[in-house]
Amino acid sequence: MINPFKNKKGLGRGLSSLIGDNETKSPSHKISISSIVPNRNQPRKLFEKESLNELTNSIKERGIIQPLIVRKSDDQDKKFEIIAGERRWQAAQAAGIHEVPVLVIEADHLKSLELAIIENVQRRDLNAIEEAESYKNLIDNFGYDQDQVSQFIGKSRSHVSNTLRLLSLPEKLIEMIRSEKISQGHAKILIGLENSLLLAEKIIKKKLSVRQTENLVRVLKNGSRKIYKSKDSNSLATENTLSEIIGMRVVLINKKNNSGTLSIEYKGLDQLDRLINVIKSNY
Questions:
Q1: What is the pTM of this model?
Q2: Greater pLDDT, 181 or 256
Q3: Are 46 and 124 in contact (CB under 8 A)?
Q4: Which string of DSSP letters, residue by residue, matches 191-259?
Q5: Nearest 5°: phi and psi at 37?
Q6: What is the dihedral of CA 108, 110, 114, 115, to 10 degrees?
């Protein structure tokens, strides 16, 4: 795919500046609300009900002050796709408004996504997962890399990288972040932890702060290191030998009475099947 990225500063230039990049745009005018369709690339998935109700009441009294930004739909005749202003569109429908002010611009899929991201990030309307999914969309479907996303949104590369890493968390934990049951600050601490979901549930139940969560994870990590270091050399050697032979992580816990457990960690069903076949063929 051809990289569409151009040397621009995204958020630093602002939404109005990016709109100005388009050679063709029509003056603001009103169109039927039924001729408007939502943006297929809308970064924002959740719209807070209470806030939407407040906007609905405001529109009933004062109307829509700021026009929606739209483009002609490329797959629905006589329809316009929202680029910026979906929340206003939803509230206008709830308020019983039949026509809304719009600014029609020419924009391809990339420009539409860029403008939608700019509007939402500038207003801090996106939750952490929506922001991460927006960056991933730019990277996966429009040829951006992390440096280019960083330049475009006006934030550091480390911010982009850390935000994208949230998508590596378990799906249930991602939904907790999306619904704001835990914060992005909490979530960043849980990245890469095997028991991240269990810890997330503890954070919610105990109402732990980010600092308290950091301390809890630090204690758990130090505890696991102490257990590992306390193993005798024979147990460590056995773990290493078995791990090299079967290609999976092996943990051996041998108690004083010489009873204990031998755990083998597999990464997929193919490894599990291979492990089962080895055991069956030898016993």
A1: 0.57
A2: 181
A3: no
A4: TT-TTHHHHHHHHHHHT--HHHHHHHHHHHHHHHHHHHHTS-HHHHHHHHHHHHHHSSEEEEEE-TTS-
A5: -120, 150
A6: 10
For 106, the 3-state DSSP assignment is coil
Cβ atoms of 70 and 81 within 8 Å: the answer is yes
Residue range 43-57: average pLDDT? 76
- Please name every residue paired with 99 in a beta bridge, in sequence order, or none if there are none: 32
Alpha carbons 283 and 279: distance in angstroms, whole number: 6
Vertex 240 angle, CA 238 and 168, to 5°: 135
Report the b/e string of 51-71 with b at 16+ CB within 10 A: eeeebbeebeeeebeebbbbb
Domains of the chain with bracketed CATH: 10-162 (3.90.1530.10), 170-227 (1.10.10.2830), 231-282 (no CATH)
Check residue 182 and report its DSSP letter: S
Which is more confident, 120 or 102? 102
Nearest C-alpha neighbor of 190 from the set 173, 171, 212, 172: 173
Between CA 98 and CA 34 the distance in angstroms is 8
Residue 244 bears catalytic tag = no
pLDDT of res. 277: 81
Structure tokens at 210: 């980010």
> Strands 99-104 and 36-37, how do they pair?
unpaired
86, 131, 133, 239: which one is catalytic? 86
CB 119 within 8 A of CB 126: no
Give the type of residue at 154.
G
Residues of the chain with pLDDT > 90: what percent?
Answer: 7
Give the Cα separation of 97 and 89 in Å (integer): 9
Strand spans (E) along 88-177: 99-104
